[in-house]
């Protein structure tokens, strides 16, 4: 196969390597495969690729790393000169590097483990406290990893507040458990999503979490203003939303759904750390996650090419080609 663009493993740039929409000179053909229902291991085929991932953001790299481990010959094509999307390290001023995204908050521990990212160079600093949030009247909430220390601070907002805070998150967790789906499987249809919600209380929770807003939900639990100020940012982050925007409670479901999919692996599981506290801070910034993902892909036979934008995908029968 003629090499196209720049191989992120260090290969030379050749024809067609133009970021943002270059047409490949070589057609790639890949059987269309149910990506998440692969057998645990398949003999690696030779020649054409079994799977081509278009886009070398972190999701594309994670997909490629799992496919490689499943024995598929996998290629990642990225239009930009670097991998990682907003997680890529960029030199924004001469000599100054950063990524656009700043938080590894939702990086799944299972993915770190499955793809051996720490083996491939990723290291975390795990600060304690994990966050500090200013509150009115010169007060601070300090997010310690120790749940008891957090409870004491929350209880100081109002008598019984720690119990209400716990009840709020237990409500979300119970709903996630009742859904009976896994974030590690293909996304469910709406029918599949709601099929276990046969009890009235589950249906009400569905309505509140999917169509209600986080302000109303927090008020139903009679949370103190300070507690609401801690929780609301998590429900609106990443969207042009206010706490009154319908659907905002669903943004609090990432951890509950993760825990419903795979139970916690001990008290230090980052998914149990309160609020935004999490996995830890990757040494080298978010780009270090991308570097480790790339190394994991390459170590399992995958290929990664940057500066190669895919303009069209053609399918014929069970085969696809990208160009
Ligand atoms: C400003 C901002 C800040 C954010 N901060 C955070 C944060 O702090 N923490 C967090 O967890 N999330 C953050 N996010 C969200 C996070 O960046 C996205 O959820 C994540 O990037 C999605 O990853 P992805 O791999 O699906 O897509 P992307 O990261 O968008 O990757 C897609 C890749 O595909 C490439 N591509 C597109 N079309 C083609 C084509 N035709 N051919 C070849 N390549 C193509 C793109 O160049 C890109 O590299 C932030 C998002 C933004 C916009």
Verbal overview:
The protein is an alpha+beta fold. It folds into 2 domains: 6-89 and 286-322, FAD/NAD(P)-binding domain; 129-272, no CATH class. It has helices spanning 58-69, 109-114, 147-155, 161-179, 190-194, 200-211, 214-220, 225-236, 254-261, 287-299, and strands spanning 6-7, 28-31, 51-54, 74-78, 90-93, 96-98, 124-125, 131-135, 139-143, 281-282, 303-306, 313-316, 319-322. β3 (51-54), α1 and β4 (74-78) form a beta-alpha-beta unit. The longest helix has 19 residues, at 161-179. It starts with 5 loop residues before the first strand and ends with a strand. It binds flavin-adenine dinucleotide.
Task: Please summarize what this structure is.
This protein is α+β, with helices and mostly antiparallel strands.
How is the secondary structure organized here?
Layout: E1 6-7, E2 28-31, E3 51-54, H1 58-69, E4 74-78, E5 90-93, E6 96-98, H2 109-114, E7 124-125, E8 131-135, E9 139-143, H3 147-155, H4 161-179, H5 190-194, H6 200-211, H7 214-220, H8 225-236, H9 254-261, E10 281-282, H10 287-299, E11 303-306, E12 313-316, E13 319-322
Parallel strand pairs: 3-4, 4-11
Antiparallel strand pairs: 1-11, 2-13, 5-6, 7-10, 8-9, 12-13
Flavin-adenine dinucleotide binds at residues 54-60, 77-80, 85-87, 100-103, 105-106, 309-310.
